[in-house]
Amino acid sequence: MIQQFDFPVRMLRAEGAIVGESPVWSQREQVLYWVDILKPALHRFDPASGQQRSWTAPAAIGSISLARNGKIVTALRSGFHWFDPADASWTLIAHPEPHISHNRLNDGKTGPDGAFWAGTMDDRADKQPCASLYRLAPDGSISAHGNGLVVSNGLAWSPDGRTMYHSDSRRAVIYRYDFDAASGALGPRQVFVQMQPEWGRPDGGAIDAEGNYWGCGITAGRINKFSPQGQLLGYLPLPVSRPTMCAFGGADLKTLYITSLTENMSAEELAREPLAGALFAVDMPVAGTPVAEFGV
């Protein structure tokens, strides 16, 4: 039986983000970093004080990762960059697709191998399967790991680091791969979940300590919980129809942070959803799996 969860959803920031994305919890700082892809901006939210600091990004910012050196790895339209909060500087690392002007980097996350994995997406209205998934190694080298994607999304790893999850939002499918945490090598791509229309399209996801995949069902206004075998166990309804990504945080990793968007919503839709584009939090009964930091 599929369960409808009734965990209370708290609004933290009525941001009205164009495309809120990539929430990343800092265990060291006890703060949440997240982005608005198209504003474009990088935010640092302190849940203890409710205060937020923001930096303007030089280009659309698809995703971020905390790094062991105290900086932040960012996936911009113009390539992978370092961002240093100490002086607000942006420094190019490398660009995986300088020859494809209509693509931009999208969802990304650091894996158990210490590398930042991020995929691209076709940014045109008539989206085509011209995107790829990339691995940015700590030494700055880039390797491609699968192409023919439309909108790369949904990266997450199992608690033991032996399985990687990854989705294509436009194909409405979540994949799984065997993963070698020592080398970053992937096994063959397998279908983990073929999304049904009422579940929404797959967007960003996170893994709990029990190995369940919590994925945003964009357009359906819910977070779906899938077992490690790909069975839909339940879903959490949200006050907005377009959640984009979720991430576990808090001192005990039992707070689920959720971003959302307003992009392409009509005036009527925005009137019905005054919290569209907000940042939310949900107190969860289970902790999340910690996300690795970039570097060795």
Give the radius of gyration. Answer: 17 Å
Provide the number of structural domains. 1
Order of helices and strands: EEEEEEEEEEEEEEEEEEEEEEEEHE
**CATH class label:** Mainly Beta
The total count of helices amounts to 1
Characterization of this structure:
By secondary structure, the chain is mainly beta. It has one domain: TolB, C-terminal domain (Neuraminidase). Helix content is 2%, strand content 48%. The protein contains 1 helix and 25 strands. The chain has one helix spanning 267-272; strands spanning 3-4, 9-13, 20-26, 31-36, 41-46, 51-56, 61-66, 72-76, 79-84, 89-94, 103-110, 116-122, 133-136, 142-144, 152-157, 163-168, 173-178, 190-194, 201-207, 213-218, 222-226, 232-237, 243-249, 255-260, 279-283. The strands form 6 sheets. Strands 1-22-21-20-19 form a 5-stranded mixed β-sheet, with no helix packed on it. Strands 2-25-24-23 form a 4-stranded antiparallel β-sheet, with no helix packed on it. A 4-stranded antiparallel β-sheet has the order 3-4-5-6, with no helix packed on it. The longest helix is centred in the C-terminal third of the chain and has 6 residues, at 267-272. It is globular. The mean pLDDT is 97.
